[in-house]
Amino acid sequence: MENEKTEETPGPSPIKSYFQLWTHAKTSDTLLRIAGTIAYLAVGAGLPVMTIVFGDFVNDFNGWGSGGVSPDSFKDAVNKNALYLVYIFIAKFTAAYFGSMLYNVTASRIARRVRLRYVERIMHQPIAYFDRCSAASTSTNLTSDVNHIELGLGEKSGIVFQAISMLLVSFGIALSKNWKLTLVCMTSVPFVFLVVTPLASVDTKIEGRIKAIYSEASTVVEEALGSIANITALGASEKIMAHFATYVKKVMGISWVRGLIWATIVGMIFASVHSVYALCLFYGAKLAAAGEIPDGGTVLIVMFCCILASQSFGMLTPVIPDLIRAGVSARRVLSIINQKVGDSGDKACLSVPSVVGCIQLRDVTFAYPTRPSLPVLDNVTLDIPAGKITAVVGTSGSGKSTLVALLEQWYSPQQGSITLDGEDMERYSTSTWRDAIGLVQQEPMLFNDTIEQNILNGYHGGICDGLTEEEKHALVVEAAKKADAHYFISALPDGYRTRVGERGDRLSGGEKQRIALARAIVSNPKILLLDEVTSSLDPESESVVQRAIDAASKHRTILQISHSLATIRHAHHIAVMNKGSFVEEGSHHGLMQLGGLYARLVRAQRMPSHHKPATAPKTEESGPASPSHLSTMDQATATTPTEKPTPAAPELSLHSKSVTHRRSLLPNLAHLLTTYPCIAPPAFAGLIGAIGIGATFPLTAFLYSKLITVFQLQGTPDFTSRANFYALMFFVLALSEMALYWIVYYFFSMVSVTAELGYRPDALRATLKQDSAFFQAPGHASGALMTMLAIDAESIGNMLGGSVPIITYHVLNITGCAVMSLAVYWKLGLISALVCLPLYVVAGAGKTSIDNKAGERCERFFLESARFVGEAVGSVKTVQALRLEEKVVRDYGGRLQAAVRRSTRGRLMAFMFWYGGKLLAEGELSVGDYFIIYMAAMFGGQGAGFAFGYFADLAKAKMALNRLFYLLESKPPINSTKGIDTTSLTAATKGGGTAIEFRDISFSYPFRPEVPILQNLNLKIARGENVCLVGRSGCGKSTVISLVERFYDTTTGDILIDNTPLTLLDINKYRQKLALVSQETVLYQCTIRDNLLLGVADAASLSDGDIETACRTANIHDFIISLPDGYETNCGPRGAALSGGQRQRIAIARALLRNPEVLLLDEATSALDAESKVLFREALEKAGKGRTTVAVAHHVEVMKAADRVILIEQGRVAEEGSFVDLVEKKGPFWEFLRSRVFVSATTLRHFFAPSK
């Protein structure tokens, strides 16, 4: 597949975009934000203020150590200063709590508004936008990008103000104490700034590039998961993976640069901190010796303030990546929100009640934005009279459906005009225009809601003002009866409250079409647009629906597009299109006399001359059909039901605790190393570095104590030499830390990237290989799965790249500091190791537990919301046609909830000062030992608090790894079958015999086991036989196809392939001998050539001549070579760049290229014009020799061409035989035909005799 060029999102810089987010804050948010900012500024000022008290402490301790202070005075000073620290800690804790709470609350509220406005803007985008942008990228922006925005607006941004406050207050206090020492110590700050700023700028660009690549990759994932049955039938999962791998390689190629950047940034920042220690001690001792500094407390105040100023940059180290991601994400999201979408509300001059319904197209020329050089309509003129039926027919791809697109205002013509009642379309607002129109498309799109709500959506805007629930239901039932949908709905267990599944996939094609028709007529629109509305219906339903259309046409303007010419024969006006122009117009009789294209199309369909409009009994008189007929399960050919859980297999859900909590984190990490052994070397190197960093904390505490106590020697000969020695030790420590942090961050970034990029393809591959039942589990809709896979990959990457190294060296920090405290003096060490540190741990554990539970709830919510929006975007044409944009936004807004994270901080060090002072006063502890223990407790406590900030990432990663290994280790009962190679079976039975046999088959779909679909079905299909399955919509025809493909296993009975149970065959080799063409054709966003070769295992073995032959057989070659890029033309998201007929012909050619032994056709020609159908049947007769063909069809032409017709009713074979024999018998098949064509047996024999 081709690799599209990935470009970053244009627009303002990430920094500017980040600040633009504030435009989405309300006044209350701003006020809360200001209060939170004040709180964070207070938190930042707290530590510098504490240095003043700390300096007094040091002077008191040094005075005691030198014998210059009495015990009582020392105790009083210690008690007073300890009390000051208590007050400061309480104030700091309170400010930190409220600052964090206020920032997180406002971040959630702003993110909620950003989500809503993004969805609102997306829903109002012109359709041309969606021709180039997939639903997958939209879901990615809404989940990953807005999550990054919320994180960047939350307490992470508050830390920025805390760091600024700490920097400014520290600098001010230090200058007030001694400006010379301050300026010398602060030389590291501009140095760090000059290094970090350009590197962070480069990282921002790389982050934007990576996001753009992943956005494109998400389209591949969404298309594959959204058509899983098609991928399974084609055996195309590895080709999809190869396409996806191209994006993974792009990310891998640039991610190592980010590792180098962040290793350098972090190493420089931490080295600068200890460089300040060295500078301050060296120069401070020099000033003290010269008498310019009175005591050690002043030096320590300046030093600690300078350290805090430097640490303010260190505080930003873990925050900067989140802020960068937030800025990049804001640029992507705001580029959509800030777009000016032309709303025609300003131009409205006419309203719906004034519409009569006379439409005129004058000299209209139009080309789709994706192919501007290829006109689809060329100087088209057409009159659509008010209150009349106007039919448009023609060859596939001639521009018929484009007329509907223009009339729905999805696009605007490049030339010409469209008028309604003499007024230009531009004078109507879009909402007014669409209020007058009802639409039923060729591929009806239903929403994952109840049947009743789907029909009510036909009230434009989704609002039924002033109606009670009973009145709404009555209108829905009335519309359903008119559309011949009431009885099959009523027979469902939940009736009108039955959920239809993602894209309506729990219903058959015919059932979806009838619900869509009911939705179109429920609001009684003035104009009705019908685009191949009966293409997927059986003859009986087609007649009844056509009768409903005829009845609904009274006093209404109808534009009907159809390939089934029998349904439009009695239209008031028929216009014939060919290659973007109208070539003939008139009545059926006049056009037949003309003998042109229309007459050829009619003859191709062999329509009987005295076929009359359907006069079938009214639906009410037909009576309810059997439950099996109404089971709504004739759907397995195009997509698989995706929402309702499988009762027998609840463990299939990736969100169940049996999956997410099946292993703890450490076994998962060990398993990760064995699964991806390439991460072991960099992980080992990074771990060595982390151990080294962990060891530096106790060493730093020791050097701190020496730094403090060295000032007891002030005025002695050894003072300067001892101070210089410890300054040198701090400088050596700084260089060591720079190297260690560089090692940790570089190598663990490589571990993160390697594991994440290994996870993404492996998880997708394992997902694609799951059985159909897997995709019916809760939360397994395609959009939700795609979002979950992306979020899990990020969780694993964040854990390995950040949480694991940070937690590792802080655990070693805590352990080392506790051991050192106990070793120096056990009494105070016990307080440090067993009271202060455990309280930090308990507080952190409590916060982590709360955050984890909230995170799990938020994860489930956001996955569901992503599914909801993905579905809405995927059916945006239907959303806009029904004016449901605001309803989608309202429904989505109802799903959003604010999530507030809380943080807990402790006030423990004041107790250390008090108890330490008590021990000193009683002579049990030396000053030097005391400060060793104190600094060890401080570093250990800080490490504990810092480490617990990353434990939430561990919980998310644990669930992600459990899901990954569940997928990798699971063996789907069907798709993992390794059995008998079908090659030997084929050779043994090549001369004839039974190819396929259904023996006493009963079957129910896993998500609705109480509804039987097939009941004791028995049928045999001989090798090389052409069999046609017929029956009412929902009778189980397509279920037979899905069982032949073995998408599901039967409930009871056996399917035999060449007399061997299907369950014993190697499933992959077996499917290679099948080719499936379904009614709802699925193409992918790649070239036409790539789509054609998608189902061919050895694509290199096919020549261009083979491809052209298959395309000529499918009557699509001439169209392809007429395109500017020919076979290299990109098909767009889900093949949106092509018409329905063009997509279907490409799918047919794709099936023929597989050279299958068994060809499965489920209404494969429903979107083709009559001539294309004839050409395809003729080609199929040639290509079908020696090939078994099983076709599901509603059209008589397909039945006639079959060797045997099998009528299925109530999940059983009701009658079978040749077409002529079944007509002669006047049995169930005869009655089935009579439901559409009410003529005599002689007429049927005459007009439906097999072609010679």
UniProtKB/TrEMBL annotation:
All copies of domain ABC transporter, residue ranges: 359-604, 996-1235
SUPFAM superfamilies per the UniProt record, alphabetical: ABC transporter transmembrane region (SSF90123), P-loop containing nucleoside triphosphate hydrolases (SSF52540)
GO molecular function, one term: ATP hydrolysis activity
This protein's GO CC annotations: mitochondrial inner membrane
Keywords of this entry: ATP-binding, Glycoprotein, Membrane, Nucleotide-binding, Repeat, Transmembrane, Transmembrane helix, Transport
Biased composition (Low complexity): 636-651
Gene Ontology biological process terms from the UniProt entry: oligopeptide export from mitochondrion
Record's protein name: ABC multidrug transporter Mdr1
